[in-house]
Amino acid sequence: MSLPVTRRALIAGAASASVGRVRGANGRISVGIIGAGGRGTADMKAVAEADLNAEITAVCDVWRPNREKAVDWVSKTFKNKPRQTSDYRELLGWKDIDAVIIATPDFGHSTLLKAAVEAGVDVYCEKPFGVDLAKAKAAYFAVKNSDRVVQVGTQRRSEGGQIAAARLMHQGVLGKVTRVVVDVGFQHPRWDRPYVEVKETDLDWNNFLLDLPRRPFDPRLFRQWQLFKTTTNGIGGLWMCHLVDLVHWFMQETYPANAVTNGGVYLWKDGRDTADVFHTLIEYPKGFLFSFAMCLTNDCDRFDWYGTRGTMSGTVGGATYTISGAGSRMPDRLGAPKVIEPERTNTHMQNFLECVRSRATPRANYQAGFSHAVAGIMAETALAQGRRVRFDPERLEIV
């Protein structure tokens, strides 16, 4: 589904980009939302709370109830009724849009990101950056070859505790780090959204599918897309992306070297084809191993970094880390446990909107997004194939 050939699309790389910079620098930032469900609603609220002279002016959602609810909320919040559509291409053709937020199901992120930057707008794109390597690469090069500001929604990069910990890690506080361990899970079926109320007449089914093969209307796929490989690549894309992104940031790595994975459907026999128990081991060129285990069958939470001088420990759901000499026998081992004090910071959405004005690089840029996508796709590919997979950083291919 290619973008219509409009004057905006044709001049996206030059005049349109410069016009966007002028508007963003001197006036109110006009923002469109593509995907106005739960995540999109939170992002719209973040725009309102940022207090940076930005306004939601357009709403795109394929499901009429979501779209109308979002239009009502935006009208009350910004005192101005936004335009609405179920077709993202129509929204991208509106010439007064400066930026868009992409908050659709995972499978659409890369496709929509590519279309948005080619239309000449800045983008806040929810994680993961992509679930299919070919589409993620296409989006990656589209952004790289543009002058668009792109922030990926791995918002932990804007948390004060993570910023403080990253700074210490870059200073080598733990010495040589050889292993990072995440063990996280939950037991409640948070994906179990009701779908019997979804009527075919209320849903723009073809625009939901985007560039997927055409298939009959399926309300369960629409509402419970997290369960199916058609619309997600599973735990690697849904949840691991946040944590592997921190590994890349803290360890100053770009791509994994190789990955092996095991797992399956061990508890939730609900027709899903994505795993509910998942364990991947990812090795990196600098010489360390990232162990990521997640289950949807038990509540657990652990996040540990092991170095020659000691250990940094926290939880996935926590805001701070504790650092100590635990586990080290080296002469330069760290001392008694100490909590890393968070740094003062602004929100992820504030960072994005500030960068729209300044044209600076946001905290979670397109390279960070593509890197976490590569790791997630590698882990899920290893699970599907039942063997170790490697990444070729020159060709950007899994081999």
Explained architecture:
With 399 residues, this protein is of the alpha/beta class. The chain folds into two domains: 7-155 and 352-373, NAD(P)-binding Rossmann-like Domain (Rossmann fold, 3-Layer(aba) Sandwich), CATH 3.40.50; 157-191 and 223-343 and 376-398, 2-Layer Sandwich (Dihydrodipicolinate Reductase, domain 2). It is built from 14 helices and 16 strands. It has helices at 7-10, 15-26, 38-50, 64-78, 88-92, 109-118, 133-144, 160-170, 205-209, 219-223, 235-238, 240-251, 348-358, 366-385, and strands at 29-34, 54-60, 83-85, 99-102, 122-125, 150-152, 177-185, 258-264, 277-284, 288-295, 300-307, 310-314, 322-324, 338-339, 389-392, 397-398. A ten-stranded mixed β-sheet has the order 14-13-12-11-7-10-9-8-15-16. Strands 3-2-1-4-5-6 form a six-stranded parallel β-sheet, sandwiched between helices. The longest helix has 20 residues, at 366-385. It starts with 6 loop residues before the first helix and ends with a strand.
Number of strands: 16
How far apart the termini lie comes to 29 Å
- Provide the low-confidence segments as ranges: 1-22
Top CATH class of the largest domain: Alpha Beta
Order of secondary-structure elements: HHEHEHEHEHEHEHEHHHHEEEEEEEHHEE
Write down the CATH topology of the largest domain.
Dihydrodipicolinate Reductase, domain 2
The count of domains is 2
Query: What is the chains' assembly state?
Result: single chain
> In which order are the strands of the major sheet placed?
14-13-12-11-7-10-9-8-15-16
Q: Major β-sheet, in short?
A: 10 strands, mixed
Structural class: alpha/beta
Per DSSP, the total helix count is 14
- Tell me the overall shape: globular
Q: How large, in whole angstroms, is the Cα Rg?
A: 21 Å
Percent of residues in beta strands?
A: 15-25%
The assigned CATH architecture of the largest domain is 2-Layer Sandwich
Helix content: 25-40%
Can you give the mean pLDDT? 94
